[in-house]
Amino acid sequence: MKKELRYYLTPGGKAAFAEWIKKIKDHTTQSRIDRRLERMEFGNYGDYKSLGGGVYELRLAFGPGYRVYFAVQNEVIVLLCGGDKSSQDRDIEIAKQCWKELRSRKL
User: Fold this and answer.
1) Could you give the CA distance from residue 66 to residue 9 in angstroms, rounded to a whole number?
2) Which of 45, 47, 54, 78 could form a disulfide with 59 if both were Cys (CB 3.0 to 4.6 A apart)?
3) Phi, psi at 49, each rounded to 5°
4) What is the pLDDT of residues 42-88, one digit of tens each?
5) Rounded to the nearest 5 degrees, what angle is found at the Cα of 56, between the Cα atoms of 97 and 85?
């Protein structure tokens, strides 16, 4: 069954993941990330690991070690934020905060 990809939106309506991917200047890299996300919709997550608390890290083996942080709720993959190896620790904390904030909302 195909899963649905959604961006995490802050209470102010900003999509951190969308803003991050737009900052990547290389369109080939953007396309490669998009293709990985498309495969995730069909359950092929590739190289990923649990970070605890329902947050996962998708590891991309190109560029500076790009990372996509996401959570899964039922049939929805929530794209929380992105980054690379150089900002990994900070990005993980941001992703966990985003997921905690989203779960606290009355949906």
Assistant:
1) 21
2) 47
3) -150, 155
4) 999 999 999 999 999 999 988 899 999 999 999 999 999 999 999 99
5) 85
Tell me the pLDDT of the chain averaged across its residues.
94
The CATH code of the domain that includes 86 is 3.30.2310.20
Contact 81, 15 (CB under 8 A): no
**Global pTM?**
0.93
Residues listed for the chain: 107
Cα 68 to Cα 47: distance, rounded to the nearest angstrom: 11
Residue-number span of the structural domain to which 57 is assigned: 4-104
Give yes or no for a contact between 55 and 48, defined as CB atoms under 8 angstroms apart.
no
- 104 residue type, one letter: S
pLDDT at 63 (0 to 100): 87
Residue type at position 33: I
76-83/4-7 β-pairing:
parallel
Query: How many folded domains does the chain comprise?
Result: 1
